[in-house]
Amino acid sequence: MDKTIASAAEAVSAIPDGATVMIGGFGGSGAPIELIHALIDHGAKDLTVVNNNAGNGHVGLAALIEQKRVRKLICSFPRSADPRVFTEAYLAGEIELELVPQGTLAERIRAGGAGIPAFYTATSYGTELAEGKHTEEFDGKHYVRERWLKADFALIKAELADPHGNLTYRMAARNFNPVMAMAATHTIVQATRVVELGGIDPEHVITPGIFVSKVVEVPNAAQEEELNRAEAVYP
User: Fold this and answer.
1) CB within 8 Å of 192: residues ≥ 6 apart
2) CATH number 3.40.1080.10 given to 16-117+148-229
3) Signal peptide: which range, if any (predicted)?
4) Which pLDDT score is estimated for 80?
């Protein structure tokens, strides 16, 4: 099945109001800027977004928040280089925040993709983040039970893709992208280059195409940090 799509706009066109959307990236590394901007243009609102951070400047995730499309943000690092958009929205009561330790966030997403409803971790025990959560003692140490995290859609960025959706990633841009691809019902990918079938060595495939719904080629993708240095604003 050929999963390639002609444009980012077409790729995100089925995302409805109220959807839960995972967005890959660690800061700007591996962030699918073009798909996020297409989602802004699409107009979906009341979104629950899962991301490592809360966006920077006025592009990408920050722009999605600034356009008041995000109802709730689940992230581990809301205070990044330039988080003014999220900070202002949060202080104004316009957005809900669920703060999750970074390793716990990654494991909750991985568990969602692996079909594991819950797991125990020592992280956050005895802190405000553990309030209201079930705890248990194992071998003399206390652990907090955390639930899996799944999404309706994932927007991720890959380096290479083939028409069946098999993916590779560029260095640190791999980050949250592979686990998010597994944890979403529909995974939408922007790839730097789409190659022909057989163009990716099977030994190099990180995300198998079974986890991918749509692929759009974006050969000259924007980089969040470069956009912010240029003081770009979207839209």
Assistant:
1) 158, 159, 160, 170, 217, 218, 219, 221
2) yes
3) none
4) 83
